[in-house]
Amino acid sequence: MARAASPAAVLLSVHAVVFDTDGVITDSAPAHAAAWKKAFDACLATHQGQRPFDEEEDYRRYVDGKARMDGAAAFLASRGLDLPEGSPDDPPGPETVGAVAARKDEAFTLRLRDRPIDVWPGTVRLLHVLHEARVPFAAASASRHATELLAGAGLLDLFTAVVDGNEARRLELPGKPDPALFTETARRLGVPPGDTAVVEDALAGVEAGRRGGFGLVVGVDRTDSPEGAADLRRHGADLVVADPGDLLINGED
After folding, report:
1. Interval 207-236 mean pLDDT
2. Rounded to two decimals, what is the model's pTM?
């Protein structure tokens, strides 16, 4: 007779877990990438000789896991474009970094109105097992939509704490790869970073976990590719899984 699933030993080596949301809990990365493409391509079209934004490689390298302003600035700089910074309150447009970031948020918000964002079943299973095992865990995200997405998926009540993009802006926390978002989340869990795991799919987020001195940094490679796993390890992942559900073990009586 099969026993209930339990966390793998590597997770039991820590006392709390911090989960990124986009790409780890929610399958929202494609929607974010598509929204960035609309924003960036509109800006790139105003500059000669610029190729369109690549929703896979450019997204992963420059914007995944980062605050909107930081992601917009990083990608534009990679193309040699030096736009005025502007502010996060700029209206959507191509003229400033803030305006490009605002156009992205506008496009993503419209996408949310069209249809809900799916969640990753393996991660949801892990969350429920951790909850039953009374392992405290929290969500941390640069996205200001993270709390909304978790609530829509019926998962919000499982979390001890959530620190989303709205909270990060209120507290003026620097974005990933700075570890401030994760260390603030660990503080709310009441567990030191050294005794806390970070589960993250973005390169910037994995680097933030390593910089923050977290006891375990788990990289999630949804591409399940040697290149993706190698990149995550180079940025500081202790181990890489294709899905957080892989951090569960199933016993047999």
Report:
1. 94
2. 0.85
